[in-house]
# Entry
Amino acid sequence: MEYIKAKTILTKVKYGNEWYGIDYNMNLYRGCCHNCIYCDSRSDCYHINNFDVVKGKENSLHILEQELITKRKKGVIGIGSMSDTYNPIEKELEQTRGALKLISKYSFGVSIDTKSDLILRDIDLLKEINDKNSVIVKFTITTPKDDLAKVIEPNVCVSSKRLQAIKALADNGIFVGIMMNPVLPFITDKEDDIRELVRLAGENGARFIHTYMGMTLRDSQKNYYYDKLDKYFVGVKDKYIKYYGNRYNCLVPNYKRLYKVFTDECNKYGILYNMKDIIREYKKENKNNEQISLF
Ligand code: SF4
# Structure
């Protein structure tokens, strides 16, 4: 296990009101070994060498505790935007578990992004935090098909396992849903697959699905992705070049029609999809908890 030095762990975020209502962000690890073929964290602007090798941050729990003590606002802390905090090393290292203990101790809330069912290990702590502040868990699921998930997200559990994890969290009262991001043009943008994923989400207790119906492509990340397209989806790279050229934001073809299909399906199953509604609901649930504990 490699370590890197860290001076700070928590970062105050400016965009929280638009993005899941988070107040702070943190990454306990650098790099990610899930190897998703589309991963944006491979972009040059992040300057992460050997991105596929996970590195821990030295003294991260000690630094985090000092920072939590001094923060006036007991806000929601986002974990897992540039790496998956439930990587295989976490199983032994328990950095994330240690951080959740501190988040609970100091009564902060938490917003976790993951693709791994290792999060189920920490249900006890998530419930504890949920009793004091807000908890939201976002599972990224890009396809309902396990065989396709194995190709595009090769080193993490397949979609059906993630759906089972969603069910387990929902059954334990955790506000949990799906990030259907990215949607890969010409690969995961099939109407039937989108309908099926929404159906499975509803069946397994997901409260929301958020998607922007597209992907981003730039520099090293784009080169990596195009190499994988050549290997696994022969001929598809040419479609990207023809359709998107050098565009960074690449919405799927038929974006409007597909988004309508998606929202109609979500409405059918009572699943939220607007960011404002998602934030309002998970924070409201917490308010109810506060009222109950006061009573
Ligand atoms: S889980 Fe997230 S950070 Fe890790 S490789 Fe996949 S997209 Fe990148």
Notes: The two ends are 47 Å apart (CA to CA). The first strand starts at residue 2 and ends at 4.
